[in-house]
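Researcher: Good morning. I'm working through a list of sequences from a screen, and I'd like to move beyond sequence-only analysis. For each chain I'm collecting a predicted structure so we can compare shapes side by side. This is the next one on the list. No need for commentary yet; just the structure.
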Amino acid sequence: MPTRPEHIENAILHLKSVDPVMKDLIDRAGPFTLKLNRNRFGMLVRSILSQQISTKAARSIRLRLDALLKPNQLSAAAIDRLTDDEMRSAGLSRQKISYLRDLSSRVLDQRLRLERIGRLSDEEAIEELVQVKGIGRWTAQMFLIFSLGRFDVFPHDDLIIRSSIKELYEFEELPSKQQSHAIAETWKPYSSVATWYCWRLIDVKKAQTMDASQYPV
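Model: Good morning. C-alpha cells for this chain:
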C-alpha cells in the first residue's frame, strides 16, 4: 500500500464519494494512520502467536520469545535454533510450536520466499502463504494489508468487519459473505482502507484516542 499522502488522499476521496456511510465513519475516526510492517517474517510469527488468544496474552508470549532469542533478532534461523522446551517456556502451545517450525523451515529452504512475495498478485501471495501450517486465508489477508500494503483486500471472514458492517449498514443479523461483498464492491479499489476504518469503529464508539498505526495486528 503506497503511503504517500496523495495515494491515501485519493483513497479517502473515493470512499467518501461512493459511500455516505463510510464518509461518516471516516469523518468520525479521523486520519488514516496505518504504517506498514516491513518485517515480513516477524509479522507472520506474530499472527500465529495471536491466534485464539487475547492480545495481552499474545504480547506476553511474544516478549518472552524475544527474550529467549537475545542477542539475536527474530528470524527463521533463530527460531530454528530454539528447542521445543524453550518455546514452551515462552508460553507456546505444542500446536503453535509446530506452526513456527513449519514457517521457519519453509523460509530457510526457500519454499517460501518472503523477499519475493511482494511481486505476486494478491491471490498468488495468499496461495503461497496458506501452504504454511497455521496460516489460513484471513492471516494471509492481514499480511497483504499490513506488510505488503495491498490496497484492495477485503477480509469478509473477519468477525469485527462483519460486526461493523452489521451496525453501520443496519443489518438485523451478521451479513453473509454475499451481503458483505455487495457493500464492499463500491469500496474498490481501496477495500483495505475501508476495512481499516471498519476496524476503527470500536474505538470511535468508545471515543478513544489511540495509536492505530498497526491496528489491529
